[in-house]
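S1.2 Input.
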Amino acid sequence: AEAAKQAQLSAELACEAAESGDAELAASASEEALRIATEAAAVVKREMDTILEIRGKLESLGVVIETVPGTRPIDVMKYLGTKNEYSLVVWRAGCW
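S1.3 Output.
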């Protein structure tokens, strides 16, 4: 997230420099934004490869892995309730 923010700031600086006519500064800021974005993409790829490797190992052991829609804990609870036909799903704080 921090790398994306830095890339965005560099890209904004590049736009401002291009609008002001400072081509050298615009080019430099654009290159910096590209470098930061490339590094961030490499980190994301490494993390994704690690996750997929772990997932593959778990699946080879017979673990069923589901991708749950949503990003909040309540989304998980709603999914589990719907899948298992429960009308109410409760969880204790600290289980996560």
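S1.4 Remarks. The mean pLDDT is 80.
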